[in-house]
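Customer escalation, tier 2.

The customer says the design service returned an amino acid string that "doesn't look like it belongs to this structure." They asked us to rerun it and document both sides in this ticket. The original structure tokens are below, unchanged.
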């Protein structure tokens, strides 16, 4: 559980997809569906507000936040609605109240239309009724592809686009007719809004696109469950209220003059009236699954995400490179050992850990996973790049349980090289014009072109092909997640005496690196010394 809010997080596997959700409280179930392109983080205060009376569940809808996308190339609102029912089934929820905002409201409406027996009631904050001309305009211009470019120009576009959406609706039409009066984002607000899209990349278009393509909005007049359509005076969709068709008695349209506070007060009254006799016992904790599954584990340093594949005999612990995208793990099908692949604190779905990202934080997370998921089992460790620096301390803690260590491209630096590396890190402070994103991009791309622990020079040049822009982008997203915790992360992960520490390990050590990844032949030299000492 999150120590400050009491809000827990977990994944559930539905077929081949993993769905991430937040949860808190007890009592009748209230599910919250977010707008595009956000995720369940937007509901943190709302979860806290209602958790004293309800079991509040807020999923990341498919393709957003940490949830996997739907398999369809261009999923429709009906696919999102069916996926929401599949989530309820997977969690053992029979009936629930449903609240949705904007895209989440459309998903909720379609769900209520196809399965009214599952809902205690439906509350929608801003029911959208775009006309044909608006749908055509929004689909063509509102949702351009978001594809990483080699020069990082897509990040500049994203920064400007997120600011523009508070000046014009739609953001892509800067005419006086589309001007809106909303306070602009702060620099941090722009950064946070941009991160919602950076979480999911080009898939940001899926939720928006489904909403714009959905043409069966008149079905709101056919709903058979209790429904409330609430339009706040500060919502850009207030102008859609006059477009509503004639509604039956069980569907109420309400204009709310008091903003979010007024919306919440109305929800208090509505939910109190529809929750009598509702299901109250729901299990929202981790579920065992065959094959690879994603999971959240509570540790002394916060909630840590990982990939797990059950097995026996020993556990293989995979530790990705700090400051880089956690890779989905692979293991030979005939390898019967348990596989654990951590998403290091500060990265991926473990990014919400709030402690400083020191080596002590990393060790606490690694040790907690071993103790909780593989107690007493022998351990094989695979570590990558700068994460190799975490291995000696982990080996000391594991003791005789550690069978073998595999180090992929360890960073074997001298003292002055470590200092040069740290001095050349990108400035993580959020810049008013988004310059920190451009700086992170340049650093991440050029660390593949120049050894990042040498002063920039011809001698530092690595004569390699340019790195793949998609991978550079994925790593930049992680650097931006780390934010101002990035320098501390690297100060502890980049060490000057790693070769000596590796030689002191009392277990077999394998070094994996090709010549292009071996600065100054140091890995090859260390490999020779390990063979001589074996």
């Amino acid at each position: 559980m999150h120590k400050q809010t009491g809000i827990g997080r977990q994944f559930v596997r539905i077929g081949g997809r993993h769905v991430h959700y937040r949860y808190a409280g007890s009592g009748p179930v209230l599910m919250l569906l977010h707008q595009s392109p956000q995720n369940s983080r937007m509901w943190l205060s709302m979860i806290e507000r209602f958790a004293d009376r309800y079991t509040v569940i807020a999923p990341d809808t498919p393709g957003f936040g940490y949830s996997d996308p739907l398999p369809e190339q261009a999923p429709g609102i009906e696919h999102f609605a069916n996926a929401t029912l599949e989530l309820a089934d997977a969690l053992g929820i029979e009936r629930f109240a449903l609240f949705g905002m904007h895209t989440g409201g459309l998903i909720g409406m379609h769900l209520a239309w196809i399965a009214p027996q599952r809902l205690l009631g439906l509350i929608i904050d801003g029911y959208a009724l775009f006309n044909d001309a608006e749908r055509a305009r929004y689909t063509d211009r509102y949702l351009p592809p978001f594809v990483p470019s080699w020069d990082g120009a897509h990040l500049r576009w994203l920064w400007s686009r997120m600011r523009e959406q508070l000046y014009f609706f739609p953001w892509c039409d800067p005419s006086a007719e589309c001007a809106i009066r909303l306070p602009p984002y702060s620099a941090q607000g722009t950064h946070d809004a941009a991160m919602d899209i950076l979480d999911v990349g080009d898939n940001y278009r899926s939720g928006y696109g489904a909403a714009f393509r959905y043409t069966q909005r008149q079905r709101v007049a056919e709903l058979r469950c209790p429904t409330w359509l609430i339009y706040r005076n500060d919502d850009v969709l207030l102008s859609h209220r006059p477009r509503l068709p004639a509604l039956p008695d069980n569907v109420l349209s309400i204009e709310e003059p008091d903003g979010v506070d007024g919306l919440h007060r109305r929800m208090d009254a509505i939910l109190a009236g529809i929750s009598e006799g509702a299901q109250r016992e729901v299990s929202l904790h981790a579920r065992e699954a065959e094959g690879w599954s994603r999971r959240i584990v509570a540790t002394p340093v916060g909630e840590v995400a990982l990939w797990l594949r059950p097995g026996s005999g020993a556990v293989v612990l995979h530790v990705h490179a700090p400051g880089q995208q956690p890779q989905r793990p692979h293991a030979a099908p005939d390898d019967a050992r348990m596989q654990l692949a951590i998403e290091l604190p500060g990265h991926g779905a473990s990014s919400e850990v709030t402690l400083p990202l020191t080596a002590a934080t990393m060790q606490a997370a690694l040790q907690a996973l071993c103790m909780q998921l593989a107690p007493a089992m022998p351990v094989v460790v695979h570590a990558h790049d700068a994460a190799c620096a975490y291995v000696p301390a982990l080996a000391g803690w594991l003791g005789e349980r550690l069978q073998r260590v595999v180090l992929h491209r360890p960073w074997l630096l001298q003292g002055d090289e470590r200092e040069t590396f740290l001095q050349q890190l990108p400035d993580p402070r959020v810049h008013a014009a988004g310059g920190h994103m451009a700086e992170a991009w340049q650093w991440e791309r050029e660390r593949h072109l120049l050894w990042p622990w040498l002063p920039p020079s011809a001698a530092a040049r690595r004569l390699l092909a340019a790195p793949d822009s998609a991978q550079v982008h994925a790593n930049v997203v992680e650097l931006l997640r780390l934010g101002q915790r990035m320098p501390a992360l690297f100060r502890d992960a980049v060490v000057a005496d790693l070769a000596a520490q590796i030689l002191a390990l009392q277990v077999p050590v394998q070094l994996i690196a090709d010549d292009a990844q071996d600065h100054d032949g140091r890995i090859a030299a260390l490999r020779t010394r390990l063979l001589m000492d074996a």
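Tier 2 assessment: The sequence is consistent with the input. The chain has a mean pLDDT of 94. Residues 142 and 507 are 57 Å apart (CA to CA). Sent an explanation to the customer and offered a walkthrough call.
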